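INFO  loader      accepted 1 record
INFO  loader      residues=372
INFO  predictor   begin
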Amino acid sequence: MKCPARTRALIAVSCLFTLLAVGCPGETPKPGPAGSGPAPTGTKRIVILTNGDDPFWDACEAGAMKAEEELGLTGQGYAVTFDRADFTDKGQVDKIKQYALQKDLVAFGISVFNPDSPAVAKELKALQDRGIKVVTIDGDMNREKYRDTRFAYLGTDNIVGGRELGRAGKALTPDGSKFAFFVGNTGAANAIARMEGFVEGAGEKFTEVERLEDRGDRPTARKNVQDALDRHPDTNMLVGIWAYNTPQAVAVVKDRKIRDKEKVLCFDSAEASISAMKDGNVDVMVVQNPYQMGFIGVKLLKALVEDDKAIVNEMYPTYSHEGTNDLFQTELRVVVPNAESPIKADLFEKDTVFMTLEEFEKWLKERGLTSS
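INFO  predictor   done
INFO  writer      dumping tokens
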């Protein structure tokens, strides 16, 4: 029996509604980064994107989420997303493009992996052209070429941090040392500044033998230490520039049983570096405050969205894209194993906080952190 045309049409419409209700195969939403779940209609999203995936960023994420809570952002219609790239230009570009498609994006903070990347610069400029507020956190764009791709920089003054680590090295070996640098990317703005600062702070008696990059790959980071020691057996100081570099140096020194010969200095306090200092295998840590970066980063981005001049002017009282007028310096600490260390507080700038490891661990515990 043939169905009347009207009946066939009703059946077709019914089937269509059934398909729409069930959905298409393979479209199950994938889990995303912290705070990246579906946002209510009208939500204004603030995103912070790191240069890569490392425990260093755990404290920054904790600070960002604390800002969301303490500033009452959810009740004001905001949502904070904290995401991690993969230590590549492409990884950051892909992430920026992904967030650019989200209609609720109002502000974007980024720790730049490669400060000279024209692709990253292009995407950040495109965000700004749409009215999205952009700041750099911990890692800046090349200020000579791409300063206008962000409103301002927030993070450590890495030249100062490098100088402080160099001064610490000088106190450990007053007669000088032959040293090697280890870092993820020798071209990153923070890496360049830290290494230049170290050379300044350590002085003329110190000789750099190599600076090696690993592009965020841990096995390469370890091999770099081995290779540097093989090529320069008279090296007696190893300097970790990014958080994960020092645990690799410690491992090689322990394997070769050369701790009596090698001084180990580091930027940042990875959990493994803290443990190594406890065991007598790290001589000094210059420590940033990524928790503060996350908290103040969210606070600044919200202020920019709302044109809150009081907060912006407090952070950047002489704001311009010249000199240091668009740079906000977060806290810096020097951590030594104990009071018997030859490294003393009076060696450092007045704003640098000096701590023993015991004092530093107490500071971390008060904030629910295991690294910084």
